[in-house]
Amino acid sequence: MATILLLEPHPLLRLGLRHLLAQAHVPGDLIDLDPAGLNDPDPWTHHADLLLFGLPADAEAGWQTLADLCRRLSPLRVLVLADHLPAPLPEAGLPDAVRGLLAKTCSADALEAAIRLVLAGGECFPSQLPPTRAAEPSLPDARHDAAPIVVPLHAVPALPGGATPAAMETPAAGAHLLNITERQYEVLALLARGYPIKTVSRLLNISVATAKTHACTLYQRLHVRNKGEAVYVALQRGATLNWTGPTPAKPTHVPMAPLAAREACEAA
């Protein structure tokens, strides 16, 4: 399950992002960090799968803050939201963990697609911005302590008047749209949610080798090299990849008394 850190200085935008992530089919927890409380971060904020970072109006100070956060929290991936694009970049280059840069004015669908793509191992940069890396972190000013808010992503109630979540895409519909098999679609949808191939094989009740074969075959069908590119191409073709996964099979219950009676009759 993915752990997503959310750091956005604007309260209303932060609330909107929390609502969007709660409605998205992303397995895991959202940790809402207070921008004023990062001096002594809690242990559970370290090594998160994704840091969603809202760049403040003072871009230079914002990049310094992000570099320091990457040094102290070590997020695996960072998706930056800027007020406008192209955004002013740090002189030393982007921090190594940055995997995407979006405008805060982008649509909810575009943001959700970018989050899925980055979690799947891809990158999401505007065409005007080459993804330069290797920034040396610099220390920001001291801040006051504050506890982060941890929200299960599927437990936030819908806001009144909010947008209706997109209908869940079925494997049949997604497979038809992408011209792949339903099983290949299931593998792709689970990979897009950040699951490793071993977890995918377990969820689909197939061997790891079979899951890898399905993944390699769908990469060939989509003309891509890895899961990040596959997710990107699928989203570009109109797929949502929001299939929630297979329904757990109900255990078969056989009453013991009739079974014992039947065995006794067979023995007689």
Automatic annotation (TrEMBL):
Species source reads Cupriavidus pauculus
Q: Which residues form the HTH luxR-type domain?
A: 173-238
List residues traversing the bilayer: none
Protein name, please? DNA-binding response regulator
Listed CDD domains? LuxR_C_like
Tell whether DNA-binding is among the UniProt keywords: yes
Q: Does the keyword Glycoprotein apply?
A: no
A GO BP term, please? regulation of DNA-templated transcription
Pfam families from the xrefs? GerE
Please give the superkingdom of this protein's source.
Bacteria
**InterPro entries, per database record:** CheY-like_superfamily, Sig_transdc_resp-reg_C-effctor, Tscrpt_reg_LuxR_C, WalR-like
Identify the keywords attached in UniProt to this record, alphabetized.
DNA-binding
Q: Name one GO molecular function term.
A: DNA binding
